[in-house]
Amino acid sequence: MSADSTPTDNINPAVDGSELIRFDKVTKRFGSNVVLDNLDFSVNSGKHVTLIGPSGSGKTTILRLLMTLLSPDEGTIKVGGEYLTHEERGGKLVPAGEKHTREVRKNIGMVFQQFNLFPNMKVLRNITEAPVHVLGLSKDEADERARELLDQVGLGDKADAYPSQLSGGQQQRVAIARALAMRPQVLLLDEVTSALDPELVAGVLDVLRDIAHSTDITMLCVTHEMNFARDISDQVLMFDSGRVIESGSAEKIFGDPDHERTREFLSAVL
Amino acid sequence: MNEITAGLWGLLFDGLWITVQLTVYSAALAAVVAFVIGLARTHRLWIVRFLSGAYFEIFRGTSALILMFWIFFVVPLLFGWQLVPMWAAVLALGLTYGAYGSEVVRGSVAAVAPAQREAGIALSFTSAQQLRKIILPQAWPEMVPPFNNLLIELLKGTALVSVVGVGDITREANLVRNATGDSAPVFTVILVMYFVLAFVITRGMRVVERQAKASIGQAPPKSGGITAKLGLRQQVETSQSAGGSS
Ligand SMILES: Nc1ncnc2c1ncn2[C@@H]1O[C@H](COP(=O)(O)OP(=O)(O)O)[C@@H](O)[C@H]1O
Ligand SMILES: [Mg+2]
């Protein structure tokens, strides 16, 4: 981004050095359904932030906007100081080209509720394909790193299996390894255990706890696992109807929330 | 009435060889057309979708026979160049069956779960990489059975080429019939020839389908001798993945 470009009204020029993600007046509609309404929020580098809130409140939409699976109707999103779906050209903010978006997106990894492993690739190749063909790592480097990650998620012996031969919990752990192999600055986690049989949830959460404690990766997490959220979160955001109605430390939000709506929600899910 | 002499048998086998060549060349052209048009019909630019859709509708709506007449008789009058009969036939069959095939490609690509493309985006693959590494490998096994049907249709469609003077099985059989004055033996022979060709195609496509499925982890790859490879031995279809879960 050029340093001499003139900020326009849309641009928030004040960027804190440690701010990794910023939503600036983001509005997202599906038809007449306004899902996010002038949403402002930011996430600082290295923090673990959990989004909670009732179903349909727009949590998934936020993560999908960040992953560029959706684009905002209004407002801007910045990641690492770069606009995600916009580009500055001649001092003006214009919709970004595919190439710019892909560059910024390389900093972001995502784990999906339904795993979404590639069934046509064995486990190892699921993990190495993007590092080799997107980041340009050598095959050996990528293989070595993938095997380390598989060990880390407890699946060192499954490198040569196809995804269809794994349980849901194993598939989700591979999906986590696949996302980490891209060395993203931020990891998006959208209810990653809610498609799993109850007995497989703990294994996946343990892997995520380990990552949260042993790396400095930024995590943005949507979950209904409140104990997990309490363990890993530096900050919890309570969403309702596309707005942040309350935010604070895990202790504060789970222990003594200010808002009646937060209290109601927590008593319903806990 | 006369016997089918050795010389006449020679004619029939020449015809068989021509039919095989016609089928192979037309299928190769049809495959290229099917993928280009089929993928263009899923393109994000409307003009690309429109043009490829128009191709599909036009070539589906006209018969290969009429197209063959045009390419062989009308195009020379309009443009002054004349294709040899064999290539006029291949062009007409390839363009027509390619249009049918494009529907198979389009449908199979559209049937791959959208979440697979999203996972590709999340890993920053380019659109071309998503197509090549994720979408097509998963769509391919779905394409093989309908492609097999089209290939059989194409084989039977090659019988049309005698109208532009290509010496395929059907044309040679007519010559043999005129020579012997007896219809039943020679038409029985070509019936069997077409059937054997169709049978070989189907068996070959079974092998292709099994390998396509194995390559995406849906069935264990089969090994074994040439009979197993050609699928001549009865195979016990194993259902789904063999691996365990924990
Ligand atoms: N692709 C879509 N098309 C139309 N409506 C959608 C789509 N995705 C989400 N929505 C709507 O947006 C709202 C927020 O959805 P979502 O972000 O998935 O909520 P949450 O993840 O908090 O449950 C819901 O009302 C949902 O119906
Ligand atoms: Mg959701």
UniProtKB/TrEMBL annotation, chain A:
One of its GO terms (cellular component) is plasma membrane. InterPro entries: AAA+_ATPase (IPR003593), ABC_ATPase_HisP-typ (IPR030679), ABC_transporter-like_ATP-bd (IPR003439), ABC_transporter-like_CS (IPR017871), Ectoine_EhuA (IPR014343), MetN_ABC_transporter-like (IPR050086), P-loop_NTPase (IPR027417). It is found in: Cell membrane. It holds the Pfam family ABC_tran. Residues 21-266 form the ABC transporter domain. The keyword Electron transport does not apply. One of its GO terms (molecular function) is ABC-type amino acid transporter activity. The keyword Nucleotide-binding applies. Keywords: Amino-acid transport, ATP-binding, Cell membrane, Membrane, Nucleotide-binding, Transport. It is a peripheral membrane protein. Belongs to the ABC transporter superfamily. This is Ectoine/hydroxyectoine ABC transporter ATP-binding protein EhuA. It comes from Streptomyces triticagri. The lineage of its organism: Bacteria, Bacillati, Actinomycetota, Actinomycetes, Kitasatosporales. The gene is ehuA.
From TrEMBL, chain B:
GO terms for cellular component: ATP-binding cassette (ABC) transporter complex. This is Ectoine/hydroxyectoine ABC transporter permease subunit EhuC. Belongs to the binding-protein-dependent transport system permease family. The keyword Membrane applies. GO terms for biological process: amino acid transport. It comes from Streptomyces triticagri. The chain crosses the membrane at residues 16-40, 61-84, 184-201. It is a multi-pass membrane protein. InterPro entries: AA_ABC_transptr_permease_3TM, ArtM/GltK/GlnP/TcyL/YhdX-like, Ectoine_EhuC, MetI-like, MetI-like_sf. It is found in: Cell membrane.
